[in-house]
Amino acid sequence: MREYDLNERNIIKLTDAHQKVAIATNDLHVWYGQNEAIKGVSLEFEKNKITSLIGPSGCGKSTYLRSLNRMNDEISGTKVTGEIMYQGIDINSSKVDVYEMRKHIGMVFQRPNPFSKSIYGNITFALKQHGLTDKQELDEIVESSLKQAALWDQVKDNLHKSALALSGGQQQRLCIARAIAMKPDVLLLDEPASALDPISTSKVEETLINLKQDYTIAIVTHNMQQAARISDYTAFFYMGNVLEYDETAKVFTRPKVRATEDYVSGHFG
Ligand SMILES: Nc1ncnc2c1ncn2[C@@H]1O[C@H](COP(=O)(O)OP(=O)(O)OP(=O)(O)O)[C@@H](O)[C@H]1O
In this protein, which residues make up the domain named ABC transporter (predicted)? Predict the structure, then answer.
């Protein structure tokens, strides 16, 4: 196994930061007990762009993604230090209402996880929990979210059928629709297509490309072609650090760091 220099880094900063940055971390560290999984990551995510998080297994991609809307809070023994800046607020602060914050920063997981409810019920559940009861408004949000997730045409006549009867790809797009029904600014996706066949994968990818008009997207993926196809920026994670963060085209064609070059060319380790 080749040893890589963890000090060799290329991490771009976005200019004109206030205008452009949707969410950023500053010296973020995450520990699971004694295991420091994230070792001081500072990254900025540009508004209305897709950023891919890539890197070998166990290097901290999912941990980092989950910390962006404090999902790691749910795991006991976890400690998170550093800033997570969103709209001028450090959302890593204990004063932040996490429930409220997650309306702005939504998440879609690796395996489609629809509730055991109708398609309509999946999308309206959280809205109702947040106090929305107007039927017309709920109907409109269901329609617009399903349209944005490119699922409306396939399900519009079956909205009251079980979500569990949908295909895996459709279920994942329903989970995307469910997340965007809350009108978040930032959408976090952890390998959203890894459990899907190639056709469903390409539909999810198309959906994400269309969604970036309205959302800022961060996606963990093991699929290099996928990262190259859909993302504007790519961050290469290695052993809890980010060694390279740049425009995707540069990361894949002219990486500046040896470890990235080996990883994207399939010669890693
Ligand atoms: N819930 C958890 N409890 C304890 N340790 C964890 C937990 N989740 C991840 N870890 C540890 O944190 C480190 C980073 O794991 P993480 O899942 O974030 O990496 P990853 O890059 O997303 O991996 P993969 O590509 O395999 O999904 C690993 O050492 C892992 O064992």
Answer: 23-264
Burial (CB < 10 A; 0-12, 13-18, 19+), residue 231, is: buried
Contact 221, 188 (CB under 8 A): no
Residue 46 Cα to ligand 1 midpoint, Å, equals 25
SS3 63: helix
Query: With contact defined as beta carbons under 8 Å apart, do 85 and 169 qualify?
Result: no
Question: How does pLDDT run across 142-153, given as a tens digit for each residue?
Answer: 999 999 888 999
Ligand 1 centroid distance, CA of 56 (Å) = 11
Q: For residues 39 and 240, what is the distance between their CA atoms, to the nearest angstrom?
A: 5
Query: How many angstroms from the chain centroid is the CA of residue 95?
Result: 24
pLDDT digits (tens, 9 = 90+) for 224-247: 999 999 999 999 999 999 999 999
Residue 37: CB within 6 Å of ligand 1?
A: yes
Whether ipTM exceeds 0.90: yes
Decide if pLDDT at 269 tops 80.
Answer: no
Residues 123 and 36: their CA atoms lie apart, in Å, by 36
- Specify the pTM: 0.94
Reported as a single tens digit per residue, the pLDDT across 189-235 is 999 888 778 888 888 899 999 999 999 999 999 999 999 999 999 99
Q: What angle do CA 221, 225, 231 make, to 5 degrees?
A: 65
Task: Please tell me if the CB atom of residue 73 comes closer than 6 angstroms to any atom of ligand 1.
Answer: no
